[in-house]
Amino acid sequence: MKISRLNWKKLPIETEETSDLSKNLPIQIIISLIKTSSYSNIKKRNIFIIVDYLYGKVFGSSNISDALNITTRAAQEYIKIMRELDIIEPVRGQGKGKYKFK
Question: Domains in the chain: how many in total?
């Protein structure tokens, strides 16, 4: 099931408005890193949705797959992108392939 609190018409990439989560400093840093990255606007939008859906939770590719309604393989590509952006880190003791936002 795809769930997001972000307004699809006014994503942070397109406007200065962000969800209520942006009041936290770490979220502001994450948003800034995403906005200034060289990835396509579609990828950036999807990463914003992932952040909005999974921030503060331990997640894996299946959670991203559910959030974006994409395949697990495509979700793994988003994990790779977010690791390159240095906005997620692996979690120990939760099983292989589990991450959380920094």
Answer: 1
